[in-house]
Amino acid sequence: MAKGDQQDIFSRLKAQFPKSWFKASPNFDATLQGPAWALSSIYAQITYAALQTRIATATDGYLDLISNDFFGTSLPRLTNEPDGDFRARILANLFVKGPTRANMSAVLTLVTGRTPDIFEPSRTDDSGGFDGAFYWDTGVGKWGAPMPYQSFVTAYRPITNAQSLGELDSWRWSFDSYGAWSDAQITSVTDAAIIAAVESTKMLGTVVWLRIANNPVTP
After folding, report:
1. Comparing C-alpha atoms, which of 191, 163, 160 is closest to residue 177?
2. Of these four, 4, 13, 46, 161, which has the most CB atoms within 10 Å of its CB?
């Protein structure tokens, strides 16, 4: 028996009558089941309606309406995209402030719940001043060549995803087609939603090499 279901409402209604009036009466119970069913249906509708008043809890077609209200036709639901992924993309695009490194980190953190690793080889504070003609992540530090307008981003799947999804070790362009991530079928947030978050905060004219991993590299 769950709160608000027919049996719960029936028990609440029956409790309002003195026990001495009706002891064991199937006819009386059957009579109460009618209004109990109606009231439980109303309660379910109220509960469902309350969920739709916030982006964080909205479901079904109401998420599509929310997306349309904020973004018009520019952010439609992807084919077979679950509510959780669509909600993450809506929130990511809603809070985009500009194509900056800090904003990309903030949006990815919002979508996945985990802080990404962003490395720009041309920044000496990232590479430590080493100018080797490569990118090398030792797990402790990173060395790289001065590669203007390029960055390496490692986004981490939510903890709930990491147990069931295989890690994609290869680097890919951030604007690869979603079909390239065939092993990233959903548990809570798909890789497609993570890619979309990067795309929404990526500066035009730059190259972002994206890796989606379960966990950081162990030194």
Report:
1. 191
2. 161
Point out which residues pair with 156 in neighbouring strands. Answer: 213
Rounded Cα gap, residues 171 and 168, in angstroms: 8
Q: Please say whether the beta carbons of 63 and 167 come within 8 A.
A: no
Find residue 153's DSSP bridge partners. Answer: 118, 210
Label residue 164 left, alpha or beta by phi (over 0 means left) and psi (-120 to 50 means alpha): alpha
pLDDT band of 153, cuts 50, 70, 90: very high
Alpha-carbon span 104 to 206, nearest angstrom: 13
Express each pLDDT in 79-106 by its tens digit.
Answer: 888 888 888 888 877 876 778 888 889 8
Cβ neighbours of 50 (radius 10 Å):
10
Helical residues (DSSP H) of 79-163, grouped into ranges: 83-94, 101-112, 124-127, 159-162
Question: Strand 117-119 relative to strand 207-213: parallel, antiparallel, unpaired?
Answer: unpaired
CA distance 31 to 124: 78
pLDDT digits 0-9 by tens, 15-38: 888 877 777 788 888 889 999 999
Overall average pLDDT of the 57-86 stretch:
87
DSSP 150-180: EEEEEEE--HHHHTTS----S-EETT--GGG
List all residues 6 or more positions away from 39 whose beta carbon is below 8 Å from its beta carbon.
9, 13
d(CA 3, CA 185): 33
At 114, the amino acid letter reads R
